[in-house]
């Protein structure tokens, strides 16, 4: 398997530190709001890596975090230590406790995660459940001389970490263009970042904890280091995230983790490119940060979005449009229809030649567009139907399109009965009852298609 390593800026052969288990960590959502389709492109990248590793015979220990404290709104402006805590802001906005908000959006995220058919990590870690580990990590950094204290928190001194900026190119002398720097005049260097933030004077936050330095809450960057080190050890094989996290968040994770342990933190950094909408930026303020629910309301199954993600290589920008999603739906429907029509034989084996072609593409830095091309090449080939189906199902262990669920099975009698009743209503011109019957069929997971001769055909809903 080859992966582009953001740290070395090269495509490299992947080899795990421990041949028995690959360790992988993915930066998950901040659970103060719904995750949008752009976020899910990153989680799809993580799922494809996981599935390719499993396809190759690896065992994977995979962790994803859920940030439920400490992610400040200043992150959007170039300084993640400023602004408001996103969770605290939602407390005021929604009139619920931080725990209630976190639980609600975390549950909704996992529901959407399941709709996308992503394999669950071994654990969804929540920042508030690792406060002790985070305090311990700050203590270690303090003892080693990497910290200093200001009036608003404990900060990491980036000048003490010699390789700061290796991942991002953003150093104490080369500040990222457009970033708001020196907002806090007490910071020694623009790149220094908060490890522990103090609660504002005379303000009672929804989430705050006692610490050796004062009552407060952990810095956003600290959380991921503490959770990944606790769950996966000092050195991770793979760390996944969106490209927006590379410049600051992931660079700071490296600095604090390696300063604390004295060991390399991550061996392969994998970052996915942004997704645009209609050729422009996606954002909640623009009203185009579409959610999984939004696409479902438009009549698209989440598997269509998954297929759409595979039409572009993860390091290339992807432009979301409703027309593009419709094209993906047309292709996926065709794939399901063909698979449904294939004759199935339990003894049939997958084609070694096509599985090798497919494997070569997915192992070439996750070249999913070319992997899909191999799928369609195989479908158009002269292979016998049972072999085509066996090959397609093997490929779907990586594609994750739930092809097995769309194969031709006997239609339940209850569905047939409702469909026949609907047909009679249509013949009698009782259109309202015919429509009610159609909705009942949809709720049972099937679709009914009316044919020109007055008959009908039933198929599983996509």
TrEMBL record:
Zn(2+) binds at residues 27, 224, 249, 253. CDD domains: CysRS_core. It holds the Pfam family tRNA-synt_1e. It is an enzyme of class 6 (ligase). ATP binds at residue 284. Binds 1 zinc ion per subunit. It comes from the Bacteria. GO terms for cellular component: cytosol. It catalyses: tRNA(Cys) + L-cysteine + ATP = L-cysteinyl-tRNA(Cys) + AMP + diphosphate. GO terms for molecular function: ATP binding; cysteine-tRNA ligase activity; zinc ion binding. Its cofactor is Zn(2+). Keywords: Aminoacyl-tRNA synthetase, ATP-binding, Cytoplasm, Ligase, Metal-binding, Nucleotide-binding, Protein biosynthesis, Zinc. Its EC number is 6.1.1.16. It is found in: Cytoplasm. The keyword ATP-binding applies. Gene3D superfamilies: Anticodon-binding domain of a subclass of class I aminoacyl-tRNA synthetases, HUPs. GO terms for biological process: cysteinyl-tRNA aminoacylation. Monomer. Belongs to the class-I aminoacyl-tRNA synthetase family. NCBIfam families: cysS. This is Cysteine--tRNA ligase.
